[in-house]
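Purpose: get a first structural picture of the assembly so the mutagenesis plan has something to point at.
Setup: two entries, given in the order below. No constraints added.
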Amino acid sequence: MDEVLLRSLTPSVLGILVRRGADFAAAEDAVQDALVEAVRVWPADPPRDPKGWLVTVAWRKFLDATRADAARRRREDLHEEQPPPGPAPAVDDTLQLYFLCAHPSLTPSSAVALTLRAVGGLTTRQIAQAYLVPEATMAQRISRAKRTVSTVRLDRPGDVATVLRVLYLVFNEGYSGDIDLAAEAIRLTRQLAAAIDHPEVAGLLALMLLHHARRPARTAPDGSLVPLAEQDRGRWDTAAIAEGIGILQAALARDRLGEFQAQAAIAALHADAPTAEETDWVQIVEWYDELARLTDSPVVRLNRAVAVGEADGPRAGLAALDALDASLPRRTAVAAYLHERDGDLATAARLYAEAAHKAPDLAERDHLTRQAARLNSRLRR
Amino acid sequence: MAKYLLLKHYRGAPAAVNDVPMDHWTPEEISAHVQYMNDFAARLEQSGEFVDGQALAPEGMWVRYDGEGRPPVTDGPFAETKDLIAGWMVIDVDSRERAVELAGELSAAPGAGGKPIHEWLEVRPFLAAPPTITECH
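Result (structure tokens, whole complex):
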């Protein structure tokens, strides 16, 4: 059975239940129960109409739960009769669910968890594994999130930007556990792009595809990080790159630039270069300038300094770095890289070791320690 | 079964035999070390003795309550802190002897020159839940 296909039906089934009058939290539980049932039953007895099957079973689960929950809270007559099935505007339902699950009243971690469950159809256990927290913790996070949004009315369109931020967070979380969060984020963004015509949604989808394309080349067999310049470009996924560039070009043609399109444009320029040496750094600097105008983020200015170092030489890069706050994460690593390019190996080695000391994750720490070790070995010779 | 915490220190443990900071190893020696650690954890998962392993950033801070309606006080990091934990592994094993055996293996991870580091690891038993049957002990 195709679990991804099954999960792709989740948001529209949930939307139908909510529109029939089920409250969001109860409907979401019922859909989860129906998904579990489907995994059990479908392999031996696949339904002809999977979505119809899920709606019927989820609605029955909802009624059972509501009845069991006793009539004291809800009048029985509301639920006695199954409403006429009738086709539903599935696209709108899906879109409204994205907005609800990324609602600004939720914290980022709650929005991420709720999106993965209610829109993505993942189980609480799978989400807990992906984020390395106990299942009970994740269950609490999700049920609190559901309570928070239970009073939100689903009648107004939400802000696409909040949805994009949530999907970006999911994508960036990477590849721990059985669930490939990056692939899941791409699937959810693709589904969102089908439901709403918005250049930034397209921009984010392109950005994800272009970065995902490099994934096979990003880590060595021993698990260590391989920096962009040293990656075997023959291992990049050319189909994903072509798709990402196509989506990006269509979005850019609409002349409503946003930060995700600008980030995707930078990723596309890297993807376009047959070798690291042939990278069009001048154009990349221009895109970083655009990005800095759009976001004014210090991280963008840090990355811009790297690009300036490549376009105009390491001294120019170091000068661009001078203007940035010394406490900025990864600034020391960038300084180490630029000093090495400038030929000052001793300073670079010292800064790499210092950057390793401050690294935010293990893979990066090991990578930076290796850089320091590499230079120290050369200096000893 | 009993759970033990194997603690690795940045600072505060007695000096290792092969005590060279990692950024003065060769890149190949670092790779060999990382591989050894990964293999070790994988082997414990296979044997059903692995519970958890985490690494900690070297710099943190101290925080304490500062009274009603006031934000907590923060301080540090202190460069002179004597005892600095680098990370841990939690194992669930049949005996104290097994915990010692595993800590010994972990301490043998290769370092500079590809030779074992002989690093000192702190081994601390968990305080377990009380047993159900107490009469026979």
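The domain at 89-174 of chain A is CATH 1.10.10.10 (Arc Repressor Mutant, subunit A).
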